[in-house]
Amino acid sequence: MKEKICKALIVDITIAGGARIPVILNAGSAFCMLYIRWYLIFIFILTHILIVDFTKKDGKFFEHFIESLKYNNRYES
What we know:
The chain is built from four helices and two strands. The protein is mostly helical. The longest helix is centred in the middle third of the chain and has 17 residues, at 20-36.
């Protein structure tokens, strides 16, 4: 007998459709740059769209990317 598992227990929480850490960093840097140059906001909108696209393809993309950067010197590719 199989029981359905609540998706909230197995799916990562996203912010505005993107992975949490990159979206928070992107939004924080956008708010900081907004005071310096307002026209740079379009760059942050573009990066947010890319973050959401990568997250839709693989929810753990950024976590795997960070891990690969950490261990890059140990494993040659």
